[in-house]
Each structure stands twice: as C-alpha cells, then as structure tokens.
Amino acid sequence: LGDINTAEPGARAGFAGPNIIEQTIRQKLPKGFQRAEFLLDHGAIDMIIPRHEMRDTLASLLSKFTNQPEPGSTLEPDVIIGPDATDDPAFAE
C-alpha cells in the first residue's frame, strides 16, 4: 500500500519559503512554486480537496482502501471470494 498526498486549494507546502530558495539557488522560481496547484501539476500531490469536502472525501477513500462501506452507507463492502474449498483435492472424499 502506498500513500495519498492531499492539499487544500492554494496551500503552500515546502521546508523553506520561496524567497529563501531563490537566494540559495540564485534563480527565479516558477510562478506558483510550492502551491498546491503547482504541486498537483508536477505530481508531488495526488489531489486538491476543499476543506469543507475533506472529511467526506477522506472517508470515501479510506472505505475503498479498507473494503468497508462508507460511513452512513447501507451498501455492503465488496466481498472477495477465493477458490471454492470443495475444488481442492485435499477436501476430496
């Protein structure tokens, strides 16, 4: 299992701020550098979720990854059925 990186719209992510980075590398950074939208476009995060949708979106993702119904759902989780035990020669009469 991997990880999912999310951010709120317009969020800035990074260890040092853009001014520090520009001074360190002596280059101008691209517009929007370290902002969620830039990071999404460049594969550093997987999705941007507005704060008011965060709880429902994360609950939905977790339900998919754990094969559980979403909170408040009346649907049963998918059931993965393995091979029928009666097909196994060890169970033959």
UniProtKB/TrEMBL annotation:
Share an example GO biological-process annotation for this protein: fatty acid biosynthetic process
Please state every residue range assigned to the domain named CoA carboxyltransferase N-terminal: 1-80
Give the UniProt keywords, A-Z: Transferase
Q: Does the keyword NADP apply?
A: no
| Record-level Gene Ontology MF annotations | acetyl-CoA carboxylase activity; transferase activity
Q: Does the keyword Aminoacyl-tRNA synthetase apply?
A: no
Disordered as annotated region, ranges: 68-93
Supply the name of the protein.
CoA carboxyltransferase N-terminal domain-containing protein
Q: Which organism is it from?
A: marine sediment metagenome
